[in-house]
Amino acid sequence: MKTNAENNQIKEWIGLLKSERSKNRDRKLYGKLIKMVDMPKRKRHVVDLYKINENSNDGDVVIVPGKVLSKGSIDHKISLSAIWYSQSAKKTLEKANCSILPFSEALKQKKIKIVI
């Protein structure tokens, strides 16, 4: 399968997702995530902090298969893994005491929320 991965982080995400899919854990979910990550950069999802805030609760592990932007705020503590973060989004997450997880660590969690 041809990949649109232009950097090592995207290739890492795709490799981890394919590995998880081969373990027969939620094959459809991992297949959809691979498609969301393995697309041209201009078509990838962009998610604002307010949307993450609306769709998560305190202590959740959230995966964003795209870029996180700083519009809005976070009023609870979450663990977040995304492909990219804007500088101001990272600062806002740090102020809210949210943790930024490597993708490999996020996949090890039992309950994951995906925000697109």
From TrEMBL:
This protein's source sits in the domain of life called Archaea
InterPro entries referenced in this protein's UniProt entry, alphabetically: Ribosomal_uL15/eL18 (IPR021131), Ribosomal_uL15/eL18_sf (IPR036227)
Query: Which of UniProt's keywords are assigned here?
Result: Ribonucleoprotein, Ribosomal protein
Q: Which residues belong to any copy of the Large ribosomal subunit protein uL15/eL18 domain?
A: 32-100
Listed transmembrane segments: none
**An example Gene Ontology CC term for this record:** ribosome
**Pfam families for this protein:** Ribosomal_L27A
Q: What SUPFAM superfamilies does the record tag this protein with?
A: Ribosomal proteins L15p and L18e
Protein name, UniProt field? 50S ribosomal protein L18e
Native source species: Candidatus Micrarchaeum acidiphilum ARMAN-2
Q: What taxonomic ancestry is recorded? A: Archaea, Candidatus Micrarchaeota, Candidatus Micrarchaeia, Candidatus Micrarchaeales, Candidatus Micrarchaeaceae
